[in-house]
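Known limitations

Files may contain more than one protein. Parsers should not assume a single record per file. Below, a two-record file is shown to illustrate correct handling: read the sequence, read the token line, then continue until end of file.
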Amino acid sequence: MKNYLFTFVKIKILDLLQNRKNAIMTRTLLFGTKICLITLMFCSCYSVKNLQKSGKILIENHKYYINDSLKFSYRFGGDYQLIHEKSTVRKSLRNNRLRLNVNYCLAYYQTDVEPLLDHYLFYFKDAKTANRALARLGKYNVRTPNPIIDSANYTVAHGIVLENNMGYIYIIGKNPQKEFIILEKEYINDIFQQIKIGKNYANVDISDPFTLARKYDFNEDSTVNYLLPLIKLQQNTMNYAYNIRSKFQYIEALGTFQSRIGNLDEELNNTLQEFYRYSGIKIADSGYLAIDNDVLDFLIEKCKEEKIVMFNENHFSPNNRLLLHLLLQKLYNSGFKYFGLEMLWEKDINERGFVVSKSGFYTCEPMAANLIKKAKNIGFQVFYYESFKNEREKEEAQNIYNNTFRLDSLAKVVILAGFGHINENISANKHWMAAELKKIYNIDPLTISQTSYYVANTNNWLAVVDTIYRKKPALQADIYLSNNLDYSTFAKLDNYIDYSIELPDSVINRINKPVNNDYIISVYRTQDYQTDNSAIPAYNYMIKKPLRDKIISIPLQKDEYIFFVRNEYNELIFSGNMKIT
């Protein structure tokens, strides 16, 4: 094509310039034209630059390369590091005696742990281009169906034909350290087996975000690791960005692990706002039946004549639990003696009096643990009712009845459940726990929802929403709250005391070093921790760099406390006793 165009242009120009006088000009023009045509042809050749932008790296225990434009993915070692600099790629190709044009290189990886190796991903738009490029390597051919094992050069390679004439991928692994047996096994038995093309290319084996985070949830001594699961989620955000379902699940997981650390208010609020957008939770900015402290009196007045009162919660909104903190004593004074929690998974809580790491998943959040501790101190009989069977809602209703009314016909019961379990309406598709309780035992609970509305841009920390002004389907609960209660407001309402932690300069200097370590302060009730070191902290404080203040103040219920400063790998940095300021 290039020679034909050049000849055509040459003839045309010679026709126009027939006299000898213009010969020099003609040759100059022809030379320039040839250069332009060559440049044109070169520029018309594809570039991998745009295709590089379509490539994404997902990380878990392995790395996954996914290219949306090429509809291609595969899995390889988690310790491979992507190198962007073209000069570094060119140098690596030269050092490994791989005579390939760097412009065809879609991605290049190196490892910094043994066995050391170089990993290349090349793209060619057609077989002719591919084979012309690969011919310089000898026996390599993009159409060869089986991987090529080049023991003499410590290299393995494999060509992949993409669907719908989208071109060819060529993967090369090169081991300069002569640990070729390891390299060969890794590529032949793993990497080359994980290649996906076509419509299922994005179906990679990534754990759901909760499973990913919970791999790092506990330390060797059964204490909870509050930092590492959150860090792993933040590092792997891209893993869950492919569809709304995985994105929504990621938001829930991120919020859950953020909620365990008390001073991540801004971060958790941003996550909650995103959750509200996805879930359709509505803003309640006017039309209140009561606000702030008046809500507490309103709720007690509504509850006092009831047999059973059900509150719900967003599992990663600690403020939903803080409201129960403020109500428990008044509910107990009104005759309520039983307190059931969906989040609790063990029977031993009444004997021990506080939760530990094995007590449940959501009970690992300090405000949840504090709530259960407070209920026990007041005098409540605390019980679990969760069911993991197929008829979960029905089983939960039966468990509530068996733990309360079956034993005590005059029982008055408080329930804290998640989200829709307190919905009262019965539909053809779903019978929720509250509806099942009414259906089976003819017990009609007072249901109070905290998850349908939220307050935005207002100074009100709590409000009862007047649903007469709300356009929505049939109401599922009796009372709807908009709960914007933060920890500092709660601490003042519940008469908490400011406790201080003083860190020495040596600890502050270590924390402020420019390394990747994150640090957390976990505050424990001394008696609970000494009884069982897997007790849940009363508060977790994330240290944000740079740390400038030697003294950190945290409002807490009056008690004796100890604290531990640890990094994300549970390494103890400093410990001490809390002091009242």
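...continuing to the second record:
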Amino acid sequence: MARRKVKSALADVAAQETGVIRKHRQGRICIALVYPNTYGIGMTNLGFQAVYRLLNQRDDVVCERAFLAPKQGANPNDGVLRTLESGRAIAEFDIIAFSISFEADYLNLTAIVLQAGLPLRSAARGDPHPLVIAGGVACFLNPEPVAPFIDCFFIGEAEVVLPLFFQFYKPELDRRECLRRIAVSVPGIYVPDFYPVTYHADGSLRGIEPVPGLSERIMRVRPAALADCATCSSVLSPQTSFGDTFLIEVSRGCAHGCRFCAAGFVYRPARIRPVDRLRQDMAKGAELSRKIGLVGAAVSDYPELERLCEYAIEKGLTVSFSSLRADALTPALAEVLRKSGVKTATIAPDAGSEHLRRVINKGIREEQIHAAVDMLVSAGIPNLKLYFMIGLPFETDGDVEEIVGLCERIKAVFLSASRKMKRIGTITVSINPFIPKPFTPFQWAAMDNEKTLKAKSMLIQSRLARTANLTVQVESIRQAFIQAVLARGDRRVADLLEAMAVHGLKWTAALKAWGMDPDFYTLRQRSMDEVLPWDFIDHGIKKSFLAEEYRLAQSGKSSPSCPVMTDMGCKRCGVCAVL
């Protein structure tokens, strides 16, 4: 009976997705919310779903969704990008709003603007055209590679910036007048046209200077607490990889301060939701599915995670986690995973040696990794995935070889626990090139070149090739370099994206047409006094703090986690001083 009810609820949701929003459009602002990737990827993104719900909760807004066609020629609407709910062309809406989580989606954004039938550059669009806006974590890391294509960026979290935006957005106003009104009045709004860029003769950035009347820096806005703003699935989509899982955001940000991880810095201070709020969200999710997915940069840091999981299991729900640190895993949490039917658990040592884990401030010891492996396998979870990076700053050949050694030692613990369970699963080792990200202590670091990264990955693959029940997967090094150009690029990268979108050029051909050296963005060590393309964004973090963390990394020293949970008087990074 319960199973039929769940299927019925999912069928109702699927019907909702193909139906037309029944809001009356007259007198309301019509927004096409676009995820610059396919439907299957977009509808698993909790941020996208949260914005969709926030917009449709407003009486003055009608919001519909649109997605990139899965492949060339797959769009059944003769190449016209239309919304899912009503089938209207997105160019007919007042606003086209992009939700961008990953730099790689910048490549799709340009294609979508052209597919909508709009001029690609903001400067070429006028009042008859919809306003093109963008938000999401990629935008408040570094929006500059797509700045010439966007009329207005939201630098901050939607719960705060959206209500303020609609106080000042008036579609009847002259386009430029409306944008200036918003830029002057709304914190977190960035209109690139009002911020011209200049460069030095060597190609480095001289500065971004605003027109008179605007602030030199854009303050990223955020809700101080998450108690009153639920972030959970708005729509369950059976066609996606998590189609029958109701996702709930447990926390936002991470206190650990891994020096490569942007989420650990731009979402500071880490914030958690009250357990009563999460129980309400679980009760809502239970009406649609028996599967609950808990989401956050550091779910295992949630103080009452075990109690929350016990509550879910009492209600007959299964629970999965987006992330669990090896040092936070307990037998009780491993048992929750087993009861939820999890067959593969992920552990992210990130580096093979204790030394390099201190360099990146990972804060996990090898004995904690071994203990986590034993707990997971002993709980009945047969398969493991191990996540490592290569090319990290200050990495030595010995550190790379230690990835092999650590995997072999993990395999020994894995094998011992598996034999006790009389079942041997598999270990998958994922090797990923390090990419320097804005607003991290490693934002100044250079990437390893392609030849070096390939040599490091081949060493790991060859040394582990004959290890039974273990496979090695290496993420695309070429894709990593593309992502690095987009992550660290300035406004001139827009010319590269335009060449690809307008002329249909592939990456290599577009680079030749572009005329700039991509190594300028990827392989070049930045000086501490260089103006970085994203320096105009203010996350509240002192640049001197990031620089000191970089110097600590160079010395192989770790630093303490963000103490926000216990010490609200901390002024170390600067964020809490401005809240």
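Parsers that stop after the first record will miss the second one. For reference, the second record is described as follows. Residues 1-23, 72-76 have pLDDT under 50 and may be disordered.
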